[in-house]
Amino acid sequence: MSTTATMGEMANSAVEFYPKRGGGGAETNHAGDFGVTLEELRSLMELRGPEALQKIQDSFGDVESLCQRLKSSTSDGLSDNPTDLEKRRQAFGQNFIPPKKAKTFLQLVWEALQDVTLIILEIAAIISLGLSFYQPPGHESEGCGSGSGGGEDEGEAEAGWIEGAAILLSVICVVLVTAFNDWSKEKQFRGLQSRIELEQRFAVVRNGNVIQIPVAEMVVGDMAQVKYGDLLPADGVLIQGNDLKIDESALTGESDHVRKSVDKDPMLLSGTHVMEGSGRMLVTAVGVNSQSGIIFTLLGAGEGEEEKKEKKAKKQDGAVAMEMQPLKSAEGGEVEEREKKKSNVPKKEKSVLQGKLTKLAVQIGKAGLVMSAITVIILVLYFVIETFVVEGRSWLPECTPIYVQYFVKFFIIGVTVLVVAVPEGLPLAVTISLAYSVKKMMKDNNLVRHLDACETMGNATAICSDKTGTLTTNRMTVVQSYINDQHFREIPDPSQINPNTLEMIVNAISINCAYTSKIMPPDMEGGLPKQVGNKTECGLLGFLLDLKRDYAPVREQIPEEKLYKVYTFNSVRKSMSTVVQMPDGSFRLYSKGASEILLKKCSSILGANGEARNFKPRDRDEMVKKVIEPMACEGLRTICIAYREFSCDPEPDWDNEAEIVTDLTCISVVGIEDPVRPEVPEAIRQCQRAGITVRMVTGDNINTARAIATKCGIIQPGDDFLCMEGKEFNRRIRNEKGEIEQERIDKIWPKLRVLARSSPTDKHTLVKGIIDSTVLEQRQVVAVTGDGTNDGPALKKADVGFAMGIAGTDVAKEASDIILTDDNFSSIVKAVMWGRNVYDSISKFLQFQLTVNVVAVIVAFTGACITQDSPLKAVQMLWVNLIMDTFASLALATEPPTEALLLRKPYGRNNPLISLTMMKNILGHGVYQLVIIFTLLFVGEKIFNIDSGRNAPLHSPPSEHYTIIFNTFVLMQLFNEINARKIHGERNVFDGIFGNPIFCSIVLGTFGVQIVIVQFGGKPFSCAPLNVEQWLWCLFVGVGELLWGQVIATVPTSHLKCLKEAGHGPGMDEMTEDELAEDEEEIDHAERELRRGQILWFRGLNRIQTQMEVVSTFKRSGSFQGAVRRRSSVLSQLHDVTNISTPTHVVLSTANASVAPGNAGGESVP
């Protein structure tokens, strides 16, 4: 892992991060300011353990003197002097890695141009342009066949170029819109990312005060406070530590936690996670010079050469696109192991919606391709037979250009059919809908890190929630206590307690709570005091304040450095103990923890007079019955506070924890309450109404848990449900050999509502058990909330992981999909609402889009076959395509959610995307539109008494006849767009329409542009101006759509047995082993094919047939890179869109990236 300094140097120069050094002068100058150079520090950080200690001794003497050389102090940290901080940044760099350059607008335009359909249109347009300028010699063209002569006068022949130019113009429009979309999206993501970067803070000591500063402002020489759950933002040397254990797997791949101590291994590296304990470190390397920064720079430097080797670049891109940020320094190192592990990691399922959409899009695309091919073939054959067989002409050389012009025209018609058939708006709709939801969800306190989590939430059927902080306020307060054999139901007056006992309580709480936990004055006048740090400890400290005593003087007298030994809290011990040395040299151990665990270790208790008396198992049982259970039944968490004296001679063996923390004397037992949040019971009721089961998984004891669950409404009296403890749960789900059996879990989980005293593993087992269960016909979609480092595995395993924004540790946030910025359960309900809304928005869009597609394709196809000319011209088709795809996706995808969404059950994973009701609407409206259009096409000229537009010669002027067809078609789509707002067969389609200004403005805007096109579009749009009467008829037919919609709604869906739903989720059984094991390269290749919109429809059709399912195993997507994928961190979620390519094709490419190299911080599937 250790990179040589020269390697690192090379990387630096590649990033050009430092001020350019004037002939090395600046370098020596900086080194003069500080007693140590950047190079020395870098080489120091590459060593580990004893080697590092040796190096510190050889070069600097000891850590203290290193600290002095860096002009810092171990107790007071740096001064807050801006010039000094600036000097440090100059000398040692800043704590961030420069991001990769964003794509320029031109690059995005170039990417949008890669779209195959557009390329074909461009070629067609250019050929058409070229031929229009070719004048056949003389008038011999008379002999060239039926269609060539006719109503063509000079002026019209001149205008032959217009159609080609118009197609080119519309292509340019599409490209610009696409590129602009990408560009603004990238800009937004970058904005959001920099905002989040600022929010990422870390505790450092400056001028002797602990302050929180943004990670990017950390400099070399800072004294940083590290604690359980932190993700280290820079490299450093440990100055003082308590029981510190670090997970370095991000850099080394070793999963075992590494013990760090000042005398054995003091090196702390950026990107590693603190799993236990606390301490202080001297920051020695930041940004590009930190260990993870070096790896990143190498990745970045390597990238230039990589791009020449296209294939490699694809793989690297992901990794580099994640552009390192201060927070996530881990990712770099993982890339290498990822590459190794990639082969054997199980693939994460693709989000439900994408699976269904991919499948649907492939089917539609195939149909469109077939239709367009048939159209072209029929047109060509018809023309050839008509000209050369029926009229018996021979092919004259001077007629060639004219014939070619005809063929080009047929080709253009074919392409138009294809353009309309392919729903390229689908991916756009998904993207817009998700992006819009994510933006709005920020207001509802949901910070979405992985776009697809948003939509998965709409399908959620189960939520496994933590109790503390999520269902409750996480403001712990001691409300009952048991001291000196007395049970106090409220806070006792200090005079009621024996003074010795009181002194003992004050010391035990002040010393044996992490020094990072404290109570600060409230932010607002009259607010509650702020609890900083561990909430349970804050509750205990608050208890001291209520007893009119203060913890601060005790801590000043015994600062953290003087603590002799600390056994920090972890989920196995469920207790915390601290040893201090008394003035006479003896030792005292203070311990606090869950009462049922700690009381078992007590052999005496402080009685009524403050003297210790024996405490036998019999006394303990009585105490449990009389004190602890009554407290727990009222929903209190009981905590026991105890102590033990040790003599100094012989000194106890502190590493033998079992011998140390035993034979204790109980000082008191306190009952801490964490009140239920006022809005939670209502939120849980909404969940239950929406068909979502809420389960509570907590570390508290069963009585407390049951009491809180009843208050929240998770369990109602008289229901048939289970509440059990972790031990019992484990006993029931394991067989004789101790292995977990799915069928045993299946017997329990459907009724389980509360799992108490559960370990993180239990939580993970439960989540996995529910997800893998096949008892119900629908696979369960599980959401999990968590805040602790230990919740990581469960958060990763769940379909959607919610981490707490306030109480959550970095590790939990890292593993989650959505961060609840206010730690509140009711925000989860909002997420469900948004998720369902995304699903519905996409269904609305589909319902609209497919109606247009069906009608347009059939019209173009039959029209072309019967009249040799499509009634809808290429340019008109493109306009229809634009309003249908781009604008409609905007209009329908931004419908705000309503409470009504929470009244129905979840759709489930296997539910088809297009329900029977939708199918009925699509076909119903399709029939109406086809009848109208064909009536107009074949008898329209008689109805309106105008010239027929059928069988017009090649460059004839636009006819009113065809203009009316085009206009009617567009107006019917517009009114049908209003119909499409409802997908469950509701009657009132205008319901809440003014709540969506985007929708209204798009419909009105489209209508305005349509008027302009018809009245002034002329030759390019093949439109002739219409008079008022004709306009009114077109409008009347359009409004008829709304009335027809009511007719369709009247037909009961249940009678239409013949309809079939479409867009089912991909079936699990369709995947065969060998398809899954398909070679990486193949997948890479497939993915690149899918990446550009309709390449799909042209190439690889056979491949797609055989591998429909491989789509769901695709790994990385190039397009809209991070959009719909589980990302490794909040930031990378935002960053990694730097790689956007045609955004319109997300659906096809966003495969699951669970093992993408770019996803370096991502799923380590447990």
**How many helices does DSSP assign?**
43
Shape: elongated
What is the rounded Rg?
A: 36 Å
**Estimated share of beta-strand residues:** 5-15%
Characterize the main sheet: 9 strands, mixed
* Overall average residue pLDDT: 75
Coarse structural class: alpha+beta
Q: How many DSSP-defined strands?
A: 26
- Low-confidence runs of at least 5 consecutive residues: 1-31, 147-157, 301-349, 1066-1166
Share in helix? 40-55%
| Spatial gap, N to C terminus | 24 Å
What does this protein structure show overall?
The chain is α+β, with helices and mostly antiparallel strands and 1166 residues long. The strands form four sheets. Strands 10, 11, 14, 15, 16, 17, 18, 19 and 20 form a nine-stranded mixed β-sheet that branches. An eight-stranded mixed β-sheet has the order 8-26-25-24-9-21-23-22, sandwiched between helices. Strands 1, 2, 3, 4, 5, 6 and 7 form a seven-stranded antiparallel β-sheet that branches. Helix 15 (352-390) packs antiparallel against helix 16 (400-421), helix 15 (352-390) runs parallel beside helix 32 (825-867) and helix 18 (451-457) crosses helix 32.
Concise synopsis of the structure shown:
Belongs to the cation transport ATPase (P-type) (TC 3.A.3) family. Type IIB subfamily. This protein has 1166 residues and is an alpha+beta fold.
What topology emerges from the helices and strands here?
Blueprint: H1 5-15, H2 25-33, H3 38-45, H4 49-60, H5 63-69, H6 82-92, H7 105-113, H8 116-132, H9 154-158, H10 161-199, E1 201-206, E2 209-214, E3 223-227, E4 235-247, H11 249-252, E5 257-260, E6 267-268, E7 273-285, H12 291-306, H13 310-321, H14 331-341, H15 352-390, H16 400-421, H17 425-443, E8 446-448, H18 451-457, E9 462-465, E10 477-483, E11 486-488, H19 499-511, E12 518-520, E13 530-532, H20 535-546, H21 552-557, E14 565-567, E15 575-581, E16 587-594, H22 595-598, E17 602-606, E18 612-614, H23 617-633, E19 636-646, H24 657-660, E20 664-673, H25 680-689, E21 693-697, H26 702-712, E22 722-725, H27 726-733, H28 742-748, E23 752-756, H29 760-772, E24 782-786, H30 792-797, E25 800-804, H31 810-815, E26 818-820, H32 825-867, H33 874-893, H34 916-944, H35 960-979, H36 997-1016, H37 1028-1050, H38 1073-1076, H39 1080-1091, H40 1095-1098, H41 1101-1106, H42 1130-1135, H43 1146-1149
Parallel strand pairs: 9-21, 9-24, 17-20, 21-23, 22-23, 24-25, 25-26
Antiparallel strand pairs: 1-2, 1-3, 3-7, 4-5, 4-6, 4-7, 8-26, 10-11, 10-20, 12-13, 14-15, 15-16, 16-19, 17-18, 19-20
Function: Catalyzes the hydrolysis of ATP coupled with the transport of calcium.
Family: Belongs to the cation transport ATPase (P-type) (TC 3.A.3) family. Type IIB subfamily.
Coiled coil: 1069-1096
